[in-house]
Amino acid sequence: MKKTKRLFLGMAILSLLLFTSCSDTTFEEETLHMQESLSVSDKTHLLSGNKSEDIQFDGYYVGADTLLYDHQITSILDVPPVYPETLKNDEPIWFVNGAGIDVAKQYKNMVEIAEFTGRPVVGIHNGTKEGIADVLEIILPTNETVEASIEKSVLEIIDTDTNVLLLGHSQGAFHLARSLRTLENQLSNTQLGQLMVETIGGGGMWFPRGPQYVHYANKGDNVPKVHGVLTPGALPGNRSVIFTFDDEWYDVPPEVDTPFIRVHAQIVYLRNRLTFAEARTYAPPFGTKKINLNNL
């Protein structure tokens, strides 16, 4: 028991260090537009480096032109997505961002995802409380708003012909995993099998059986090792495939350049990923399979 407590404490401390360093505070001023049915007073400016107001958008959908939609009164299927310049696959990606990311930054990440994948993207916003408060969500989970938004969105496509890829980066993968565990109690194995889930540099450890999983872990990135699918005792999901690779981002803007960002940044993962369909061809008949992308 003492050994278990020491292990948990050690992982908690490492999580604090890792996810605190995830925060990117170098944002330019952005205007966030609420859906037209909301009043002008509900529109918000996020000033450079100030994220204190961002948590009010936790669980909101982020659409084209940074339009924000309250998940409680809007269907995610009605949210206009960000489209790539060249469309390669019209099945949307629903993207859950990591820690320390405000709506303005998530929107930029969505544009990047759309261009790399050739698919339309809608954001499910994981609101930031800034710094250590974000990290505490990993150790003492309290953020149920973004998870309720994910769950509501998934339930809208169950038993339909709509195919969606759920994508979580960093802490976003943690919230995806928790949402899927909640949905496990509401859906049949067949219904869970409809779901396509991908994590990149994910901080989620325990994924339920059923969905189709693809996970990516950069060898230099400690998040998947400490609080993700490479952690001892992790459950990446049955018939899941974990792709590892070794890469660094060397063109990091000087103001955000750290050894952690070089290996954990979204762009490092996007430029190493396969299409989801191709990635799933490597899935094992049962259990989990780990593949080094550098050897393919």
Multimerization status: single chain
Strand content is: 15-25%
Task: Give the strand order, joined by hyphens, for the main sheet.
Answer: 2-1-4-3-6-5-7-8-9-10-11
* CATH fold topology: Rossmann fold
Count of discrete domains: 1
Distance between the termini: 42 Å
Radius of gyration of CA atoms, rounded to a whole number: 18 Å
Give the helix/strand class: alpha/beta
**Helix count from the secondary structure assignment:** 10
Largest sheet: 11 strands, mixed
Highest-level CATH class = Alpha Beta
Low-confidence stretches: 1-10, 12-17, 23-32, 34-51
Mean pLDDT equals 85
Q: What is the succession of H and E elements?
A: HEEEEEHEHHEHHEEHEHHHE
Specify the CATH architecture: 3-Layer(aba) Sandwich
Description:
With 296 residues, this protein is of the alpha/beta class. The protein has a single domain, classed as Rossmann fold. The chain is built from ten helices and eleven strands. An eleven-stranded mixed sheet has the order 2-1-4-3-6-5-7-8-9-10-11. β9 (212-218), α7 and β10 form a beta-alpha-beta unit. The model is unreliable at 1-10, 12-17, 23-32 and 34-51 (pLDDT under 50).
Can you lay out the helices and strands and say which pair or pack?
Blueprint: H1 2-20, E1 30-34, E2 44-46, E3 61-62, E4 67-69, E5 93-96, H2 103-117, E6 121-124, H3 132-139, H4 145-157, E7 165-169, H5 171-184, H6 189-192, E8 196-200, E9 212-218, H7 223-227, E10 240-245, H8 259-264, H9 266-270, H10 276-280, E11 288-292
Parallel strand pairs: 1-4, 5-6, 5-7, 7-8, 8-9, 9-10, 10-11
Antiparallel strand pairs: 1-2, 3-4, 3-6
Helix pairs in contact: 1-3, 4-5
